[in-house]
Design brief:
The protein is of the alpha+beta class. Helices cover 36% and strands 30% of the residues. The chain has a single domain, classed as Alpha-D-Glucose-1,6-Bisphosphate, Chain A, domain 4, CATH 3.30.530.
């Protein structure tokens, strides 16, 4: 199963700084992160825990320059591990226990998606430039309560 997670960062920072910040954040939540020859990042086993024995995930992170900033894209390859299949086969003869590994697999997919979203959010918070609107020319609205104006 494959899915994508993306986030746009509006900044004037250079691409190398963004990739380095992304690398640092991924290193906190992933078992292994490395930089490829193309300048992309790959990460394995994002947010590992005991329940992650039922999955194998491999993610390719791409930073694409866009107008006014960058687009961070995570292409996730998510599949069941051999442990998942062993547990599933062992639980098939039972009445309901075979649902447990399926539930864990789907729950872990959401854990991976949320972890990647959190990484993107931290990078975005670090570099994003937020333009505040000018208050010149904005008049306060007058609110009249209780009475309706008659013409």
């Amino acid at each position: 199963m494959k899915f994508e997670v993306s986030e746009q960062v509006r900044t004037q920072t250079d691409i190398a700084t963004i990739i380095y910040a992304l690398f640092e954040q991924l290193d906190k939540v992933s078992a292994r992160v490395r930089l490829t020859d193309e300048g992309n990042l790959t990460a394995k086993r994002i947010d590992p825990s005991f329940a992650s024995i039922v999955r194998f995930d491999w993610t390719n992170f791409i930073v694409e320059p866009k107008e006014g900033g960058f687009l961070l894209v995570a292409e996730v390859s998510y599949r069941p591990s051999s442990t998942f299949w062993v547990i599933l086969i062992m639980c098939i003869p039972t009445f309901i226990a075979w649902l447990v590994p399926i539930y864990l697999y789907n729950w872990q997919k959401e854990v991976v998606r949320l972890a990647i979203g959190d990484v993107f959010e931290r990078v975005k918070n670090e570099f994003e430039v937020i333009e505040t609107p000018s208050r010149i020319g904005i008049l306060p609205a007058m609110v009249v309560r209780g009475r309706r104006r008659r013409r």
